[in-house]
Specification:
With about 230 residues, the protein is an alpha/beta fold. The chain has helices at about 10-30, 45-55, 55-75, 90-95, 105-115, 125-130, 130-140, 150-165, 170-185, 215-230; strands at about 5-10, 40, 80, 120-125, 145, 190-195, 215. Strand 1, helix 1 and strand 2 (about 40) form a beta-alpha-beta unit. The protein is globular and about 45 Å long.
């Protein structure tokens, strides 16, 4: 079993889900006492969040590269960045280490294509919805058409993530707001919707959408299990 290196703490709410899903998956395959071989580097998300909203992407890249190198030095055979937004610096992280980085968008796109879906909605932080690092990969590498919410809906989705979900707050009114945003994406032509922030799965469930939902947290963690078990 290969050693999985997890770059987490962004936020720890979703990192805990990664740890749970990965270990449950290994146990399901190997037996009731089995668990994953993994290392976790966990950031103080308050520092990361401040740099994100300040637009200090160089500072964020330096921190992510440092975490990746530390995990590699500690014995990780491969890496996961346990957040969608910070995949903005995935190329720099991969270039800085000699072990593979499992990109969160790739297993998500493969599952979407396996379902015969070509047009998909994307929910996430404003950075993920508005910048091209994520949408571009889905389009250029996987041939998907990606729809994002309108400006007002993007602000709502972003605000709920940072003011509520990263703090573990799951509010019925916010679930209703997300349902409405999803409905408008479907009306615009989305055949499925990516939960493109690793905290959104805390709020939104399958029954909240008339089209398939793609939980990036689960799909990324499942890809890590398959990669680890292949070693």
């Amino acid at each position: 079993m290969r050693m999985i290196g997890l770059i987490g703490g962004m936020s720890w709410e979703s990192s805990a889900e990664y740890y749970r899903i990965i270990n449950q998956g290994v146990r399901d395959q190997l037996g009731p006492t089995a668990s994953a071989r993994c290392l976790l580097w966990s950031f103080d998300f308050s520092e990361i969040e401040a740099l994100q909203h300040r637009g200090d992407w160089d500072g964020l890249t330096a921190r992510m590269v440092d975490a990746a190198r530390r995990l590699e030095a500690a014995g990780a055979d491969g890496l996961l960045i346990c957040t969608n937004t910070m995949h903005r610096m995935a190329p720099a992280v991969q270039a800085a280490v000699g072990i593979p980085l499992i990109h969160i968008a790739d297993p998500t796109a493969e599952r979407i294509k396996a379902g015969g879906i070509g047009t998909v909605g994307l929910l996430g932080t404003a950075f993920t919805m508005e910048h091209d690092f994520y949408k571009g990969r889905l389009a250029e590498r996987h041939g998907l058409d990606v729809l994002v919410p309108n400006e007002a809906d993007r602000a709502t989705v972003h605000q709920i993530i940072y003011d509520e979900l990263v703090a573990g707050k799951v509010l019925p009114a916010s679930r209703d707001a997300y349902r409405e945003v999803i409905g408008r994406l479907v009306d615009a032509g989305a055949e499925g919707v990516i939960l493109g922030c690793t905290e959104i799965m805390l709020l939104v469930r399958r029954e909240d959408s008339p089209v398939p939902l793609f939980d990036t947290t689960a799909l990324h963690a499942e890809a890590a299990i398959a990669w680890s078990m292949a070693g």
